[in-house]
Structures are given as C-alpha cells and as structure tokens.
Design a protein that fits this description.
Blueprint (H helix, E strand, L loop, with lengths): L9 H10 L10 E2 L14 E2 L4 E3 L4 E2 L4 E2 L5 E4 L2 E2 L4 E2 L2 E4 L2 E2 L4 E2 L3 E3 L4 E2 L4 E2 L3 E3 L3 E2 L4 E2 L3 E2 L3 E3 L2 E3 L2 E2 L1 E2 L4 E3 L11 E3 L2 H4 L8 E2 L4 E3 L3 E2 L4 E2 L4 E2 L9 E2 L19 H31 L4 H31 L6 H9 L1 H8 L11 H15 L5 H6 L3 H25 L9
Parallel strand pairs: 1-3, 2-5, 3-6, 4-7, 5-8, 6-9, 7-10, 8-11, 9-12, 10-13, 11-14, 12-15, 13-16, 14-17, 15-18, 16-19, 17-22, 19-24, 22-25, 23-26, 24-27, 25-28, 26-29, 28-30
Antiparallel strand pairs: 20-21
Helix pairs in contact: 3-4, 3-9, 4-5, 4-6, 6-9, 7-9
C-alpha cells in the first residue's frame, strides 16, 4: 500500500518557493490555511525546518529568518524587514526592522519590539514594548513593561540575564505595568541607556528614569524617576506580620503609575499616527505593519484598563481610613476608560499647537527620507525638544484629567 507523505501545506509551500522564499526542508513546515501568501515577501526570506506559520494577520517582510536555532511558531505576528526569530513561540505581536530573539523565546500577545530591539535566549514577553536597540539577556521574564533608552546598538538599554518583572500580586491582580524610561523623551533616541543588572527584578508597577544603573541582584520596590542614579536596593528585614487582603497600602502610587503608563501609551499612539506612519507605509507591506502597531497599542490600553478596574473592585471592598477614595476610584473607572480610549477628544486640544510646530520643523529635517531611525537620530536638539514638549503635553493633559476625576486620591501631589 502506498502512502502519501505530501504535507498538508503543500500548495502554500509551493507558492512560497515560487516567490523565492528559501526553505531548506519544505516537507517539515506547517502553514495554516488562513495564512495569506501575498503577505510574505519573497526577497531574502528564509524559513528553516520545523517552523509553523499561522494566522491571517501574519506578515513577513523581506530579509526575515525564522527558526535558525530551533523551530519557530509564528501566529498572527507582523514582521518588518530583516527580523530574526531564531526559535520559540511568537503570537499576536509586532517586530519592526532587525528585531531579534534567540532560541526558547515565548512572546505572547500585545508586544511591540521596535528597530533592533531583542533578546538572547529563553526570553518571555507579554504586553511588552521595547524601543529601538533595547537588549535583553537570557532567562528573562519581562511582561507588562515599556522600556526605552539608548541611541544605538553600541549604546543601548540592557536587561541582564535572569531578570524578572514581577507582575502578579498577592491580591491576584496585574495592575502592575512598569515604565522604564518614558515615551516623550524615549522616541527621540537621544537618552542615556538604562541598565538593569542580572539576577534581579522589579516589583511592578514601577518607574525608572534614564541613565539609571541598577546593581545586579537588586529587587526594585520603589520608583526612581530621576535620571543618572546608581541604585542599590536592600532586602527587607526578615519577619512576619498579619496580611490584609486587598489593603493596597500604596494604592495612590499604584494608581498614579497605571495612569502614567496609560498616558504614555496614548503619547506613543499619537507619535505613530503623526510621525511614524509615512515611514512605515513607504515600504512593501508597511501599511499592514502600521495597522498592526495601532491594533497592538489599542490592545495594550484595553489590557491596562481591564487590570485597573479589576484592582479597583478589590480595593473598594477593603474598609479603612481611605474608604471613600477607594470607592471613588471604582466609581470613576468608566471615566478613565473613556479618557484613555479617545472618547473625550478635547483633552488634546491644548497640545495641538505644540504638535503642529514640531511637525513643521520635523518635515524640514526629514527631507522625505524613509530612514526613520536615521532621521530621528539626526534631528537637531531644538526640534527633538519640541517633539518631547508635545508628547509631554499629552501625558500631562491625561494625568491632569484623571486627577480631577479622582480628587480624593490626591494624585500627583508630590
């Protein structure tokens, strides 16, 4: 009896080969029925043995390499040019030009790795945004973070090996996003890098300024928004005390950091809409990448709002001296959802003149170049400052509106 060993993806594999995709061992691939072959470039793309490609939103641009170190599963991901996913699982995320991740990566939904960002091996990410050049070592779990800083591949923010962002609390909530750097300054690619020493961690939500160096082995439990610090955190004294579920002793700080994270996401969305869009759309498959970024940022905002509401529900159930403030927070979560999903559009009115001034000068500096990173790195300092002022205006406007809606929380008073 004869047996047919033809793979079920035979027709799609043949179409890829006909386009020029290099597939050393075609019989080992699995390509989903919903994958659109016209969203996979035929120029310089290599798919190594054992890879699996799924999802109608998957985009693979020119020069990409999948599965060089181990089989890679790619599901509804959008890849810019010369991205290398060397082995692991990658789902519902965006990888811009030259982003790389080594064997054993586990990247779940909501991630955005910008140009030349990436990690070595066994890196776990979810709802994570890495600005250009940010580099992660090995054996890292860095979910629910935004990290920026650095100016090039030789001067980049770094996370040392065996690092953890602790994003799940004893109250079983995840209102824990950490802002390592910020959007208004980070997008200008002119800030000193952040260094997180290995064998350490951050208990989210936390904030960290640029140029900060965190000593290896440190577990960050506090905010350090200032720049240029060498940080050593000591371990808490040993002991035991009564635990009160949903007490949230640092509730105001938690809410402030969540609001600031959401405001920075809004600033980043504005940056893509008004600055990055033409750069992405000028290349093949770029409009699909741009649409994917906007979807990812919207998803990130919804995730943060969902987690904030869940935390507010638990906090409101605790009786203490700030009971009224806790109930106010829960009662105003709907307002926060409207604020950060664009349903209160007049919040940006005051920032529009700043935006127009920056965009006018930016256009003169860009001179129709399609090299986004090159244009940003070569902006005159005066132009970068105007862009930062515009984006800071967005962050402040959103923070002020949230504080006005939550007077009992006394947000941003210090």
């Amino acid at each position: 009896m004869s047996m047919d060993f033809k793979p079920k993806s035979h027709e799609k594999i043949q179409q890829l080969l006909a386009k020029g995709v290099h597939i050393p061992n075609p019989a080992t691939l699995d390509i989903g029925d919903d994958v659109h072959i016209d969203q996979i470039s035929g120029q310089g793309v290599t798919i190594y043995p054992g890879c699996r490609i799924y999802g109608g939103k998957t985009v693979i641009s020119s020069g990409c390499k999948l599965g060089y170190e181990a089989p890679a599963t790619v599901e509804d991901c959008r890849l810019g040019q010369r991205v290398e996913l060397k082995g692991g699982f990658f789902s519902k995320s965006i990888f811009l030009d030259k982003a790389t991740l080594g064997m054993g990566a586990h990247v779940r939904e909501g991630c955005l790795l910008e140009e030349e960002a990436g990690g070595v091996h066994c890196v776990g990410l979810k709802q994570t945004i890495l600005f250009p050049f940010v580099t992660l070592g090995s054996l890292i779990n860095l979910c629910d973070c935004l990290m920026a800083g650095g100016t090039s591949r030789s001067n980049h923010s770094e996370v040392g090996s065996s690092y953890i962002h602790f994003n799940f609390t004893p109250e079983a909530d995840k209102a824990t996003p950490s802002l390592l750097g910020d959007v208004p300054r980070g997008v200008m690619l002119n800030q000193p890098p952040i260094f997180l020493g290995g064998q350490g961690g951050i208990i989210g939500p936390a904030r960290l300024g640029y140029g900060n160096i965190v000593a290896a082995g440190s577990i960050l439990r506090h905010d350090y928004p200032q720049d240029g610090l060498l940080i050593f955190e000591t371990r808490p004294a040993g002991g035991a005390k009564e635990f009160h579920p949903s007490a949230y002793p640092n509730l105001r700080r938690v809410v402030e950091n969540n609001i600031l994270y959401l405001a920075n996401l809004s600033a980043l969305e504005s940056w893509y809409r008004h600055v990055r869009k033409p750069f992405l759309e000028a290349r093949p498959l770029g409009s699909l990448l741009y649409a994917g970024v906007l979807e990812t940022l919207a998803s990130a905002g919804k995730e943060r709002l969902k987690r904030l509401r869940a935390m507010a529900e638990k906090a409101a159930a605790f009786s203490g001296p700030d009971t009224r403030a806790r109930k106010e927070l829960l009662g105003q979560t709907g307002f926060c959802e409207d604020l950060f999903t664009g349903n209160i559009p007049d919040v940006f009115t005051a920032t529009r003149p700043l935006r127009e001034v920056f965009l006018e000068d930016f256009a003169k500096s860009a001179q129709n170049s399609t090299d986004y990173v090159g244009v940003i790195r070569n902006l005159p300092g005066t132009v970068s400052l105007k862009g930062t002022a515009w984006l800071n205006g967005i962050v402040r406007a959103l923070g002020d509106r949230a504080a006005q809606a939550l007077p009992l929380m006394e947000l941003f008073k210090n």
